[in-house]
Specification:
Blueprint: E1 22-23, E2 31-32, H1 35-68, E3 92-95, E4 100-103, H2 104-107, H3 135-147, H4 151-163, H5 172-184, H6 188-200, H7 208-220, H8 224-236, H9 240-252, H10 256-267, H11 273-290, H12 293-300
Antiparallel strand pairs: 1-2, 3-4
Helix pairs in contact: 3-4, 4-5, 5-6, 6-7, 7-8, 8-9, 9-10, 10-11
Length: 308
């Protein structure tokens, strides 16, 4: 074993022992007995050091991409009909009373009382609790769910503070705090919101590097909007191959705009017909997984509630 390959030996003078503890700050692959030896060996080590750094960076980038471009698991099923929840927000509703997210078909189905009659008041489709009728009551329920560690409640409260809704004062600092908490609890969309804020200077200074970092965290957590935004970023950078990979994952998760972007890329010759066909098939598979007669019926006669 050479002195340069043995971290117990000074790469310059060959001294051995515990005194050899001055490591190369860049490659971390060699040690020296003191700063003088490190300086003396610098020119000789420079080429090897740069190669170590390059290989380490390539390895880290490869591992990062493996995680980044992994197809995330599908979203949860509706707890009532047990069919995959749609990606679009309009396809489901979160109920703050019980913390359940219900598909649009089950949301708009009749809710019966204990005698089998259709309830005359608005109730939760899952737990049959009366829906809140005032801003104060709704926020009180949200804070109760937040204290119970419900990531969706924490995330939604962050949105309400951002926009100053339902009697809450607009507070971007509070919104960021809640989004970070929601993300730590597993809500990927919270990371996406943070990324969007950095990308557009919403309550913070514009920082595209941070925006990409948070979009990546959201995408790896299964958020198709952040995944689409990453595709857009790669498109602007001229990286068609990476953009396509992001759009394909978002399309499989039901993001129709990503499918349209792939279509445009095909039109302009940036992707193949095979790529576009695969994207179409992937999107059709998603539609098949979320389809139900009850949801189709709800889509044609959707009822909108302010309080949820």
């Amino acid at each position: 074993m050479s002195a340069a390959a043995d971290l117990s030996v000074c790469a310059n003078c060959g001294k051995e022992g515990s005194g050899v503890n001055n490591i190369c700050n860049k490659c971390k692959q060699v040690k020296y007995c003191n700063a003088a030896c490190k300086k003396k060996h610098r020119n000789k080590h420079k080429k090897e050091c740069e190669e170590h750094v390059r290989l380490a960076a390539e390895s880290a980038a490869k591992l990062h991409d493996e995680k980044l471009f992994k197809q995330p698991p599908p979203k949860e099923d509706c707890p009532i009909c047990f069919i995959l929840l749609p990606t679009l927000n309009s396809g489901s509703k979160y109920y703050v009373c019980c913390g359940k997210t219900i598909c649009s078909g089950c949301c708009h189905a009749p809710v019966y009382d204990d005698r089998g009659n259709v309830a005359g008041v608005k109730k939760c489709s899952f737990c049959r609790t009366l829906l809140p009728t005032t801003d104060t009551e709704m926020i009180k329920r949200y804070k109760k769910r937040m204290n119970a560690g419900d990531p969706i409640a924490v995330y939604n409260l962050g949105n309400y503070y951002r926009d100053g809704l339902y009697g809450l004062s607009q507070d971007h600092t509070k919104a960021f705090e809640l989004w970070h908490r929601a993300a730590e609890l597993g809500h990927a969309m919270a990371y996406s919101n943070i990324g969007y804020a950095y990308s557009n200077g919403q309550g913070v200074e514009v920082d595209q590097k941070k925006a990409i970092q948070y979009y990546e965290l959201a995408a790896m957590g299964g958020n198709e909007v952040a995944r689409h935004n990453l595709g857009n970023s790669e498109t602007r950078a001229g990286n068609s191959d990476r953009a396509l990979r992001h759009y394909m994952i978002a399309t499989r998760s039901g993001h129709s705009i990503s499918l349209n972007n792939i279509k445009q890329m095909y039109t302009y010759g940036f992707v193949t017909k095979e790529d576009y066909t695969k994207a179409l098939q992937s999107y059709q598979e998603y539609l098949g997984e979320i389809k139900s007669a009850q949801r189709d019926k709800a889509a044609t006669a959707r009822e909108t509630y302010r309080y949820h």
